[in-house]
Amino acid sequence: MLEKYGNANVWKHFTDLFDYLPLTALIESQIFCLHGGLSPSLETLDNIRDLDRMQEVPHEGPMCDLLWSDPDERCGWGISPRGAGYTFGQDIAEQFNHTNGLNLISRAHQLVMEGYSWCQDKNVVTVFSAPNYCYRCGNMAAILEVGENMDQKFLQFDPAPRQIVPDTTRKTPDYFL
């Protein structure tokens, strides 16, 4: 940033912009899309609509949960090993879908080797779109394509061939100087 633009203003403008992007999306009132998962504080889509989005993501609370929570094989709510958000069981996903008239929760936030993975009796799907995550995981990427009739198809992608080996030495990014 500093070399190209002379200062970190562009970076700051982009990070400020993220505070205005929506937390979730809804496809034809049937597929609920979000980054992480559900929150014990949010039972309905209206609860989510009522959140004050115009802020940085807090370290805890419902907005944080939507970005950090993960599905789990265990029922109910659990403590997330990530240190933020919660884990939620199939019973929670089924109840959320039923309460809100949804067919599916589509989320990201977890590496899955084939690019997508169904869980919780197809109430939840994880779609991961970063191939060969961190240049070392060897995973595929995927996107969920939803047709006009709500038919669903996954498009999977292999990682692109690496042209140049990235410099993975750790150093402080220029914008922190």
TrEMBL record:
SMART domains: PP2Ac. Its EC number is 3.1.3.16. InterPro entries: Calcineurin-like_PHP, Metallo-depent_PP-like, PPA2-like, Ser/Thr-sp_prot-phosphatase. It comes from Hibiscus syriacus. It holds the Pfam family Metallophos. The keyword Hydrolase applies. Keywords: Hydrolase, Manganese, Metal-binding. Residues 1-161 form the Serine/threonine specific protein phosphatases domain. The keyword Manganese applies. This is protein-serine/threonine phosphatase. GO terms for molecular function: metal ion binding; protein serine/threonine phosphatase activity. It is an enzyme of class 3 (hydrolase).
